[in-house]
Every structure is written in C-alpha cells, then in structure tokens.
Amino acid sequence: MDLTNCFIFFLLLTSLYFALTRKTPPKKHPPGSMGFPLIGQTLSFLHAMRTNSIEQWLLQRTSKYGPVSKLSLFGTPTVFVHGQSANKFIFTCDGNVLGNHQPPSFKRICGERNMTALIGDDHKRVRGALVSFLKPEMLKQYVGKMDEEVRNHVEMHWHGNQKVMVMPLMKTLTFNMMSSLIFGIGKGETRNNLIELLQHMMNGLMSLPINLPFTRFNRSLKASAQLRAFIKNLISERKAALEQRVADTRKDLIACLLGIGKTEPSIRMSDEEIVDNVISVMIAGYDTSSVLITFLVRLLGMDRSVYDKIVQEQEKIAKTKTSELLSWDDLAKMKYTWRVAMETLRMNPPLLGSLRKVLKDFEYEGYTIPKGWQVIRAANMTHMDERIFSDPSKFDPARFEKQASIPPYCFVAFGGGARICPGNEFARIETLVTIHYLVTRFKWKLCCLDNSFSRNPFPVFNDGMLIEIEPKDC
Predict the structure, then answer these.
(1) What angle do CA 343, 296, 57 make, to 5 degrees?
(2) 19 lies in a domain?
(3) What is the 8-class DSSP label of residue 446?
(4) Which residues lie below 8 Å from residue 42, measured CB to CB, with a gap of 6+?
C-alpha cells in the first residue's frame, strides 16, 4: 500500500473513530430546581395550597424561570406550564405522548382504574360509559328529582334559622343529590354514614402517601376501603335486580353502567372500574359544585347589583313555570345566572389544574421533556391573564354573553377539547336549581367580610362561610 492510500485509510479510520465516540449534545431541560431528593417542592406546594397563596407561589416561579419550568412534586420530576398554548397542547396532545395522571395518594385512595388515571383506549372506553349517563338527554329526566332534593334541603336546614354555615350545607346538599342519582339512596342513616366516609377519604387526596397510623393518608385509605365495600355490595344488588327485571337501568349511575355493559359491549366496565369511577364522580360532584355554589352565595352577599339581577330573572321563572318543579326548559332561561356562575369559575376555579404523565420524550417551547416526568398546568393563571381577559380582576359576567368570543383553551374551568369534564352539565343543573330556591326564598348578608379559604385540593372556607339569612314573603 503506497503512502497516499495509507494516508486516506488513516483519515477514514480517524473520521469513523470521532463519529462513534462523539457525545450527543445534552438535552435541554426547562429551567428550575428539583429541590431536595424525593421531597422536592412538594411541601412548599402543599403549604401554598392550604394557605391559599398558590397563585403567588406560581407567579414567583414564573417571574423567576419563565412560562416553562421544572420542579419536583410528589417524588416525580415535573414541568409547570400555563397559558392558552399550554392548555391547547395538553388537551389536544396525542394520547401516546401525555396520559392522565394523579398524585400517588389520589390513585391509591380512588383506585388505579378511575378515569382520571387511565390513558389511551381504556380512558376513551370508561369516559364513553360515564358520558352515556351524564349527557343532557339523560340528565333531563333527573331535573325534577334534583328540584325535590334542593327544596327538602332548604326546608330542613335553612327555614327557621337566623344564621347558616354555607359551605358545609352545600356539601351536604350536593352529596344528597349525588347519593340519589349515583346510588339511588334516599335520606337516612345510610346517607349520613356515607358522607362521613367520603369526607375522611377526601382529606388525604393531596397528602404524602405515607401509610403510617394516625396520618391523614392512613385515615383516608381506611375510609376508602369501607366505601369501596359498600359500592361492591350495591353492584351485586343491582346486578341481581336487573337480572330479575325488577330494576330500571335509568334508576341510578350504577344501574346505568351495568346496563350499558350488556347493550354496548365496546364500553363495558369491570366491577373494579365501576367502583373506582363511582368514587371519582362522587368526589367531582361533591366538591366542585358545592364550592361553586358557596362562592356564588358569597358574591351575592357582597354585590347587590348582581343579586338583584339574578333575583329578577329567577322570580320571573318562578311565576311562569308550568309545574311545581323546575323543568329543563326553565333552566335554559337562567342565562344571566349561569353567566355569573361562569365568571365566578373564571376567578375562582374549584380545581387549580391537572397533572399529565409523560409517556415518551417530546419537545415543548425549545425544551426536551423526558419520559416519566409529569406536566402540571394552572387554570387560574390563564383565567387572570390580562392579554386574554381585559381587566381580569374585575367581576364581569358580560364576558360570557357570547362565549364564542373567548379564545379556545382560555376558559378551562371544565377542561377543554375532547377532555372537557363529562359532568359539566350535571354541575350546571345542580347550581341553577340551588340558586333558584335560595334567591327566591331568602335574603342574606355575610357575617364576616374576610371569608378566607385554603385549598385541599378544593377551596375550603375557614369559617364555613357563615351568613345571616332572612326569609322572603312567599
């Protein structure tokens, strides 16, 4: 081999060596800190939630690191994002990239098969089954039953009292409605025992998953086990009744889900999935609606002009309704009341945001987000963005006169896109029926103008939201 060929061969070997040994440039992760091992920012995050300083906590992160930052929550590397583009990405992202995700404490208490923890085809199947019960066509037939629950509640807990604590009463009311429509259980000792179990269970949803005696998480697990045993017994009873044809699949949620399994095999749910998702629906219906109604009562006690407009609308409906009970058509006339509710949700969303699990590496805003991390969004930061909602701190129901004028993925109190909350119509009915009977039967004023609250993870008023009530002459 001559010198020229040797030199060419040497160059080829050298090039091959550098090509094989050259290091891949490190992937660029979002700015931020992971904090202490395992704990990360979990304790400061939970403290901010429980002291209602989470907005300031998130704003500090944004001002320090920008709109995309990394941190560690519940032992998992996390990316925090917010804004319209972030919401759109999360709600429309391929199910192979981002999947539903909940903190370990939530999954262990509510079960691995609840809709908020499922991904891909399983999520679509379970969601489809739940939507079959929660769609408007089905809910129309339950308006009268919810009307009766509200009137019974008002008669029992409001009439004859000078002062009432709104938040615990609204939780009782929404639970009673859920109990009736999910379980088919009327008032009595069983309901009382169930609401106590649910409250104990929910106390640990956002806790450190340390299962030691006397911890919040331990108490929640015990309550969850008892509630699950109760639901399993109900499933067995409904199955027997349906087989003997002495029960209607429209009786309640459990009967509906069992019936769907026979008529639509593609969305059939196992008993375990029914248990897990009944618990999830209970939590969503119990807390989100009660929080919204409590905030509305607070608003109407503080803003006389809004109160007067709602009273005018509701009294007109009360005079013109065609039966003793409210109907679906009556609810459709409550346009101003629902705009007020939507603006309340914009300013005080019951749920801060949501978590998604990263199923494979992806690029976002120039950063690599690795598989195994989680993504968290914050609805309140989009809702209070002055680039989207002018003068966002001002309460203005007129924003929702033409909801189409609000850019997509900017109002996300119920989620967005294909992932919009399947229970949003149920929440609308609960809220409108309740407000109708409160404003047509009572006047009220707040006993304390402070009315501060914490999040656990839903807002909890520190004094229960005490008000002084005065019955109207009917």
Answers:
(1) 65
(2) no
(3) E
(4) 72, 73, 74, 75, 208
pLDDT at 222: 93
Return the CATH number at 339: 1.10.630.10
Work out how many domains the chain is built from and give that number: 1
Which residues, other chains included, contact 172 with Cβ-Cβ below 8 Å and sequence gap of 6+? 153, 157, 195
Domain that holds residue 339: 26-471
Could you tell me which residues are annotated as the binding site? 421
Task: Evaluate whether 218 touches 203 at the Cβ level (below 8 Å).
Answer: no
Helix (H, G, I), strand (E, B) or coil at 71: strand
Q: Is 30 helix (H, G, I), strand (E, B) or coil?
A: coil
Strand-pair partners of 164: 467
Residue 16 in any domain: the answer is no
| Residue that has been written with the tokens 């032992």 in this structure | 75
Q: What pLDDT score does 19 carry? A: 47
Place of tokens 């340390």: 210
Q: 393: alpha, beta or left, given left = phi > 0 and alpha = psi -120 to 50?
A: alpha
pLDDT grade for 229, boundaries at 50, 70 and 90:
very high
Distances in Å between the Cα of 10 and the Cα atoms of 1, 17, 19, 88 are 12, 10, 14, 54
**25, 87, 116, 100: which is closest to 364 by C-alpha?**
87
Side-chain-facing half-sphere of 233: CA atoms under 13 Å: 6
* Burial (Cβ within 10 Å: 0-12, 13-18, ≥19) of residue 23: exposed
Q: Rounded to an integer, what distance in angstroms lies between the CA atom of residue 258 and that of residue 412?
A: 31
| CA–CA distance, 53 with 47 (Å, rounded to integer) | 8
Question: Quick check: pTM over 0.90?
Answer: no
Q: Where are the alpha helices (DSSP H) in 244-303?
A: 253-263, 271-302
Q: pLDDT for 281-297, tens place per residue?
A: 888 778 888 999 999 99
Q: Is residue 289 part of a domain?
A: yes
| Summary mean pLDDT of the chain | 85
Question: What is the Cα–Cα distance from 38 to 34, expressed in whole angstroms?
Answer: 9
Q: Is the dihedral of CA 313, 380, 423, 86 positive or negative?
A: positive
Instruction: Report yes or no on 130 lying in a domain.
Output: yes
Binding-site residue numbers for heme are: 421
Residue tagged 């002009």 (tokens):
305
* 318 CB-contact burial (10 Å; exposed 0-12 / middle 13-18 / buried 19+): middle
Q: Is 215 helix (H, G, I), strand (E, B) or coil?
A: coil
